[in-house]
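Board work, copied verbatim: Spermidine synthase
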Amino acid sequence: MIEHDELQELGRASGAHGEVVLRRRGAVTELIVDGVFAMDDVDTSTERALATEALRRCTGDALRVLVGGLGLGWTAATVLADPRVTEADVVELQPALVGWAGEGLLPGLPVLPDRLRLRTADVADALAGSPGRWDAVLLDVDNGPAFLVHETNAGLYAEPGLSTALAALRPGGVLAIWSADPAPELADRLAALPGAADVEHLVLPVDRDGRRFDYAVVVARRAG
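↓ predict structure ↓
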């Protein structure tokens, strides 16, 4: 029996992109990437909102969705809960996380459905290699554009990276980006890009331990 404050390490691995640690503190699962606290599952509402806010803006059936960043699996699980989604690709930089998902260690994905494809890659490469393919692209690879887990991810939030993400969508497809803090400057950058439409900056308040934290999801549609 794990006491509330007892720390249990579920997995630890080092690789080209630093060390990743999966651990459980009482009933809470935590993910540490290269020494940076990435996330836990005390409250998963904003990770799930990343999926629901994007998918409710999608039209039609047989949706193809690309998720950048596996995390603890909550975003991918929410994508798969939508019966319109027939194909869900999750691109994760850390091979250890993909392996732990296969072992059932991620609380959001205790079982891997057939519609889910997990692959180890840089999401920037995946986006560049699939123009016009996706109905929705969901990016949750950092704590937001102002708090990067890996400095190399900065390009995802610059104009060329955002243009590549939009180009990976079919016309009318939806891009959604998660942030641990409000990111109005990211929304402004997206809105200024040719081909971006219906840009919204959604602030998502969460109460943790009696304190309010404002997370955000920035959404945009590929025009056409």
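Residues 43-222 form a domain with the Rossmann fold fold (CATH 3.40.50.150).
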